[in-house]
From TrEMBL:
One example GO MF annotation: oxidoreductase activity
PANTHER family noted in UniProt: PROTOPORPHYRINOGEN OXIDASE
NCBIfam families: PRK07233.1
Species classification: Archaea, Methanobacteriati, Methanobacteriota, Stenosarchaea group, Methanomicrobia
Name of the protein in its database record: Amine oxidase
InterPro entries: Amino_oxidase, FAD/NAD-bd_sf, Zeta_carotene_desat/Oxidored
Residues covered by the Amine oxidase domain: 10-402
Superkingdom in the source lineage: Archaea
Organism name: Methanospirillum hungatei JF-1 (strain ATCC 27890 / DSM 864 / NBRC 100397 / JF-1)
Length: 412
């Protein structure tokens, strides 16, 4: 079969990887590099992801795929520390002692928080989908715990939409991050980054004769005479992994779903500035919601400098001077001189991920186009939280659907 795959992100690459041995694959990727949100900057001495990433010990599909690609020996299990920036001070919140010493909650409030994290895996996510995280947490824990402890997390991930996010997302987020010891969260990373994973997928696809067309956006999708036409080129089947809003622009009649944009600033610094903490959510006002000290997580020796991300999420159009505003604010808050910043690059994506607003699941289940296989961040595999694992599983499911279609053409 001639199969077109729209989008060269994780789901698109994984489905192509599964199908390329027995089918003629063509991947359409609008950007200059494949990998989607997992693509990298390629510096002179190293590669570093454009957006911060890690994975979890329970990511079975991803870990199995790494094993298939002979990359299992590059897995590192590292400790992820967390903290918050409030009133000009960084508060570490990784260990029980650090949480106990956190001055913005009383002992009673900390006890309530501990009980909540113990029972979080037992909540019914289907019920919580229609409730905002703000309402749910305020009822469960009180206004002060919500504002002081959880609101910075929601701000860091959803910016101006923080108050509208579903409780299902929040509970899932807390539950998945419970793989921790007294010293911090156990997170996975690949030796020297994820570029080896993307390269291995790409080499396998092209090795079987698949074609990857970068800088090639899809402008039209039509079905005629039993064939699909992508940019007027005929195919037997199509897998679309890009956002439904982008698919609508090609002429498809497809329900839309809310997405948000991301602007991620990556910097090389001469010294560490996050006090050894990997992830800091900001409580104070800033043009970004989180500071991610990558080299407080991955070994600094790989890079020869300290790597920091500033993460900002938005809807609509971000300010044209956002990069400058982020750097200026970061320098002021973290006491960084201009000559201590070795380089700074910003990547923006207006369709960086779904907005898990209250009621999201019902909208997600409406996304379909007869005869077209859909997979991506909007898929069920990425509900109620998008991840590398979810995108891998979405790509594998899409490939399985194509195989079923080939065996039973009448089902299309």
């Amino acid at each position: 079969m001639r199969i077109a795959i729209i989008g060269g992100g994780i789901s698109g690459l994984v489905s192509a990887y599964r199908l390329s041995k027995d089918h003629k694959i063509t991947i359409y990727e609008k950007s200059a590099e494949i990998g989607g949100l997992l693509s990298s900057y390629h510096r002179k001495a190293y590669s570093i992801e454009r957006y911060y990433h890690h994975f979890f010990s329970g990511d079975r599909a991803f870990l199995h795929l790494l094993d298939e690609l002979n990359l299992s020996d590059t897995i590192l299990w590292l400790k992820g520390s967390t903290g918050t920036y409030q009133n000009g001070t960084i508060y570490p919140l990784t260990t029980p002692l650090e949480i106990l010493l956190y001055p913005h909650l009383s002992i009673f409030e900390k006890f309530r928080l501990a009980l909540f994290t113990k029972k979080v895996k037992h909540f019914d996510l289907s019920h919580l989908d229609t409730i905002s995280a703000e309402k749910f947490l305020t009822e469960q824990l009180g206004e002060k715990i919500y504002r002081s402890f959880f609101r910075p997390l929601l701000n860091s991930k959803f910016g101006q939409n923080a108050e509208k996010i579903s409780a299902a997302w929040l509970v899932s987020r807390v539950a998945i991050r419970s793989d921790r010891s007294l010293g911090g969260e156990r997170l996975g990373y690949l030796e020297r980054g994820f570029s080896s994973f993307i390269e291995s997928l790409s080499n396998t696809i092209t090795g079987y004769g698949g074609e990857i067309r970068i800088n090639t956006p899809v402008t039209s999708i039509q079905k005629a005479g039993g064939e699909w036409y992508i940019n007027d080129e005929p195919f037997d089947a199509v897998i679309a992994t890009i956002a439904p809003g982008l698919l609508k622009k090609t002429g498809l009649d497809i329900p839309d779903i809310p997405y948000q944009g991301a602007a991620c600033l990556t910097m090389g610094l001469v010294r560490p500035v996050t006090q050894g903490i990997y992830w800091i959510n900001l409580y104070d006002d800033a043009p970004y919601g989180a500071v991610i000290g990558h080299t407080c997580f991955a070994p600094r020796a790989w890079y020869g400098e300290d790597i920091v991300y500033l993460a900002s999420y938005y809807t609509g159009t971000p300010p044209t001077d956002l990069k400058e505003r982020m750097i200026e604010d970061f320098q002021r808050k973290f006491s960084v001189r201009s000559d201590e910043i070795l380089w700074a690059e910003m990547t923006r994506d207006p369709y960086a991920g779904p907005l898990y607003l209250a009621g999201y699941k019902e909208q997600m289940n409406m996304i379909s186009v007869p005869g077209l296989v859909l997979a991506g961040m909007f898929s069920e595999e990425n509900y109620p939280e998008r991840s590398i694992e979810g995108s891998v599983r979405a790509g594998l499911r899409a490939a399985e659907e194509i195989v079923r279609m080939e065996k039973n053409p009448e089902v299309t």
